[in-house]
Amino acid sequence: MSAHTPGPWTFDGNTGVVSGPRATTVGYVAGGNLTAIANGHVLAAAPELLAMLEECIDSLESSHDQALADKVRALVAKAKGQS
């Protein structure tokens, strides 16, 4: 699988568009209701959340929390389409 559009991403609650750099459309959230708007904000945060999870893996392994590190690693793999 190819890499995702780099962040940061933004969400326009008026149009439902999630955009990356240089106004690249990453996705669209339909509905316009409060749930759809909340989903748009979560999607816009995805690249930063993924990067932070990747950074956490080494720290978790260093603190000997292997079970949590494995869970985080599984989420990262899911986000990258590797699971």
Could you describe the 3D structure shown?
It is a single chain. With 83 residues, this protein is an alpha+beta fold. The protein has helices spanning 34-62, 66-79, and strands spanning 10-12, 17-19, 25-28. Strands 1-2-3 form a 3-stranded antiparallel sheet, covered by helices on one side. A hairpin with a 4-residue loop joins strand 1 (10-12) and strand 2 (17-19). Helix 1 packs across helix 2 (66-79). The chain is elongated. The N and C termini lie close together (11 Å).
Question: What layout of secondary structure does this protein have?
Answer:
Layout: E1 10-12, E2 17-19, E3 25-28, H1 34-62, H2 66-79
Antiparallel strand pairs: 1-2, 2-3
Find the count of extended strands (DSSP E, 2+ residues): 3
Number of helices: 2
Q: Mean of the pLDDT scores?
A: 92
- Residue share in β-strands: 5-15%
The low-pLDDT segments are: none
Helix-strand makeup class: alpha+beta
Number of domains: 1
Strand order in space, largest sheet: 1-2-3
Straight-line N-to-C gap: 11 Å
- What proportion of the residues is helical, as a percent range? 40-55%
The largest β sheet comes out as: 3 strands, antiparallel
Spell out the helices and strands N to C.
EEEHH
Radius of gyration: 15 Å
Q: What best-fitting shape do the alpha-carbon axes yield?
A: elongated
